[in-house]
Amino acid sequence: MKRQIVISLILFVVFGALVPNIGAPAVNAQDDLKIVVIGKSVAPYWSNVETGTKAAAAALGLSEDQVIFFVPSTEDIAAQIQAMETYIAQGVTGIAIAPSDPNALEPAMKSAADAGILVTTLDTPPIEGSVSLVYIGTDNYTAGTIAGQAMVQLLPDGGKVGIGRGSDTALNALQRTDGFLATATGIDALEPVTDREDPTTALQLASSVISANPDLAGAFGVYAYNGPAWANAVIEAGKIGEIKIVAFDATTDIIEFIKGGVIQASIAQREYDMGYRSVEVIKMMAQMGVEEALAEAGAVDGIIDTGVDVVTPGNLKEYEAGLDAKGIPHEWTTEGWEVPEGAFTFQAE
Ligand code: BGC
């Protein structure tokens, strides 16, 4: 009897060491979970995503080192691939990534999936047929069409419009541009200028487009810092209100430019939700299985559409009230600010 116990014990220790998961429950224990979110650049937009991941960790009872957030400083595909490799080696539970180049990232995402890691995407979609189990973010083409409609409403007589964006490979930048061009009829859109998520380059490019086109009537900022880049360039050129700006996102700088009458409209994404839900859904998948988790999370065809809000001076106060009602933190306030007379209000089409 004693001998049998000793043998069982030896077998358990030997095989337990060889196969780390031996004896582990089918579901991931809460303490074993490790969830990684990989973004695209150091920017206020990504800080909001990170805030969402932290809020999810706190609400779901995960410790600070169980939820990791990483971003390269600017668009850096190699750095994203390297981060994937590091976290695959660590054997984390799940990785949510915003692929700056979905084709270049797919092999690393596949390696992760092959290693049993739950791979999801956020903010910018993966390639078709990707191993990504779900995309959590904006429907970027539709959001681009809304931006195009806003531009047409701001420029009813048409005119020349510059486009500044942070990537020529990330699908969100490409889809937003396509959507914009599809609805901005009557607009003479210039070839997009690309800054690879470097706000300094974005400002230089915006300034040179403005000086090369004295008749510029509008500017479209595709990424979160592009609107502010156009705004600063417009201020420098002394053309506030003369060049209409449609931006993306509702970071503090954008809201201040909307309050100041420099940016006329912005398509605000829900990036806090993207961070929050990425952590939440990976945890659910780890604990209840992929299919059941996705059904419960409301994924449709592998997509959780986080939605957008069109923010203009005309509805800024309502937008703020909406964020407050949902408990979404923001550094800016409309307190003490009055809606200027004749402020632009978007007409949904
Ligand atoms: C985009 C992100 C991008 C960010 C830059 C956002 O509009 O959705 O993909 O990294 O802008 O700040």
Would you mind describing this structure in some detail?
This protein is of the alpha/beta class. The protein has 2 domains: 27-138 and 272-305, Response regulator (Rossmann fold), CATH 3.40.50; 140-269 and 312-326, Response regulator (Rossmann fold, 3-Layer(aba) Sandwich), CATH 3.40.50.2300. The chain has 12 helices and 13 strands. Strands 6, 7, 8, 9, 10, 11 and 13 form a 7-stranded mixed β-sheet that branches. The chain has a 6-stranded parallel β-sheet with strand order 2-1-3-4-5-12, sandwiched between helices. The protein is globular and about 60 Å long. Beta-D-glucopyranose is lined by residues 40-41, 43, 45, 98, 123-124, 166, 172, 197, 223-225, 248-249, 269.
What is the radius of gyration computed over CA atoms, rounded to a whole number of angstroms? 23 Å
Give the overall shape, derived from the CA principal axes.
globular
- First and last CA, distance: 79 Å
- Count all strands and give the number: 13
CATH superfamily of the largest domain: Response regulator
Structural class: alpha/beta
Sheet with the most strands, sense and barrel status? 7 strands, mixed
Overall number of domains? 2
Instruction: Write down the overall mean pLDDT.
Output: 93
Low-confidence stretches: 5-26
Distinct helical segment count:
12
Q: What is the helical fraction, as a range of percent?
A: 40-55%
What is the string of SSEs from the N terminus onward?
HEHEHEHEEHEHEEHEHEHEHHEEH
CATH domain topology of the largest domain: Rossmann fold
CATH class of the largest domain: Alpha Beta
Beta content? 15-25%
